[in-house]
Amino acid sequence: MGAPSTVWDTAKMALMLPLLPVQASLGNTGLLPTPPMGFNNWARFQCDLNESLFTETAQSMLSRGLRDAGYNRLNLDDCWMHHDRAADGSLQWNTTKFPQGIPWLASYATKYGFHLGIYEDAGNQTCGGFPGSYGYERLDVETFASWGIDYIKVDGCNVWAEDDRSLRDEYRARYGKWNEVLSELPRPLIFSESAPAYFADNASDWAAVMDWVPRNGELARHSTDVLVYVGEGSAWDSIMNNYDYNTLLVRYQRPGYFNDPDFLIPDHPGLTQTEKESHFRLWASFSAPLIISACIPDLSDEDIAYLSNEALIAVDQDPLAQQAALVSRDGTFDVLSRSLANGDRLLTVLNRGPVAASTTIPLERLGLSQVGCEYLARDLITGEDVTLQNAIEIRLDSHATSVHRFELPEGCSVVTPTGMVFHTPSGLCLTASGTTVAFEPCGGSDSQIWNVLTETSGKLTISALSDKSLCLCAHESRVLLAGCRSVGTNWEHSITGHLRNTDGGCLTKVSGKVTIGDCVVDNAAQILGLPSGVHLTDGLTG
Ligand SMILES: *[C@@H]1O[C@H](CO)[C@@H](O)[C@H](O)[C@H]1NC(C)=O
Ligand SMILES: *[C@@H]1O[C@H](CO)[C@@H](O)[C@H](O)[C@H]1NC(C)=O
Ligand SMILES: *[C@@H]1O[C@H](CO)[C@@H](O)[C@H](O)[C@H]1NC(C)=O
Ligand SMILES: *[C@@H]1O[C@H](CO)[C@@H](O)[C@H](O)[C@H]1NC(C)=O
């Protein structure tokens, strides 16, 4: 196992980020250092939840080993409430559904080694039409804490802009209020924010919302809900939709804050065994929340086995909390990579195509380009080890995913963040051609895979694998490729998604062309995705 590379330094990055006064989340990474794991009723049972569903689920999670594998949260979703508040304004549970009450259920959960989580809404009503928390945030948070709950998901249905505010400013104000009241508790609850999901169809608004989300809470639902059990349509397409959204948000994730692409749905009747297992492997590669929404007692032993894969859970729960990012995308294979806390490198490959296929991935694409190094790659599904020097060949069935963990030997621990640099709203890839660059459809060639080096100055230099002697360079309003020591080759990347030239403005997409423009926080033409592990500056935010 090699020491973590000095090329990137996530710990330092996390310290540099907070810009606004920080309360619950980034100032308190101890609240949720690694992503949550557990059960939620929604995708499988929707409003048909009750006490016995939760107690039977808990017993099944215990006897089938899921709790010991790390799934230690039981989260209630919408529809747990009585349809009216009590005379003193406080929330009450539906006593038909929860005859012994939510505080009883919380102590039951604790007794068996679980935590209980709950659901509310930032608007006037929940999505299911029950009382929302708008105007009652403090009372509701105090109520939940007094019931023994330590995790809350706050949805964003039925929020209307007040006064002259824009809707996105309204969400900011509402979720800011939640952060404030949660932060005032002696023990803040873990705060899951659904706000970004309400803006996912507009790249500018989405970026503006994502700008504050990691500072307010510990995780965020950023895109539409995964298909529910009784829903119509393709469950695999729904998983791929949320997967794709998640790939746009790599730079936000860090210990204490997690992007949430929604539940695992292992008993969805529309999924093949291969697809369910892919779902789990992709979410673990992301270090995403692993919240199962299924009838746990009815899951097959095969399902329990893949959900309990220790090596993949260790990746999910890795303390570095890096999210796997796209290295390449060629229409069939998505290749993703990230680092782990002990310096190891992860390779995740998904075959999105309709038939089985093979691909060969040079290790240079994983950011491992030291000469004369031999790496031990462990297949985290089969447990088999293979020693590699230059490349790895992967063969996958349609919709299957492989995950390999590369051990970096002594003297071979240098990792350079490497992968796609892409315009996230369009998905187009920054593409090198001679000394010019353009945004083009991603095809997986070396001209679309970039080394992003952090110089000792903290500035980035960016070169395509097709010709590493040339670096991305800004010259007035033009962007081109020039010798890596030329003026104009130093860049900064920030949480807004900007790539700012230290001698000028921000890299901007104008149709397929790459130009330099004034940096504007929610300018959708300037929102870029970079490999994971790229050094972030606080340059523009705030
Ligand atoms: C509780 O909910 C489950 C799942 O929806 C259902 O099968 C069961 O009949 C319910 N039990 C009671 C007592 O309502
Ligand atoms: C409680 O839930 C039951 C369904 O389980 C429903 O029939 C009843 O109307 C609910 N009561 C209240 C007060 O919301
Ligand atoms: C929403 O709730 C607020 C605060 O209780 C209230 O002032 C407002 O009229 C409500 N809006 C609607 C549309 O019900
Ligand atoms: C996205 O939202 C921004 C700002 O709220 C607005 O100016 C823009 O027109 C919206 N874009 C689309 C495509 O709706």
UniProtKB/TrEMBL annotation:
GO terms for molecular function: alpha-galactosidase activity; carbohydrate binding. Keywords: Disulfide bond, Glycoprotein, Glycosidase, Hydrolase, Lectin, Secreted, Signal. It catalyses: Hydrolysis of terminal, non-reducing alpha-D-galactose residues in alpha-D-galactosides, including galactose oligosaccharides, galactomannans and galactolipids. InterPro entries: Aldolase_TIM, GH, Glyco_hydro_27, Glyco_hydro_b, Melibiase_C, Ricin_B-like_lectins. GO terms for cellular component: extracellular region. Transmembrane segments: none annotated. It is an enzyme of class 3 (hydrolase). Pfam families: Melibiase_2, Melibiase_C. The keyword Metal-binding does not apply. Residues 1-24 form the signal peptide. Residues 330-405 form the Alpha galactosidase C-terminal domain. Its EC number is 3.2.1.22. It is found in: Secreted. One of its GO terms (biological process) is carbohydrate metabolic process. Belongs to the glycosyl hydrolase 27 family. Hydrolyzes a variety of simple alpha-D-galactoside as well as more complex molecules such as oligosaccharides and polysaccharides. This is Alpha-galactosidase. It comes from Penicillium olsonii.
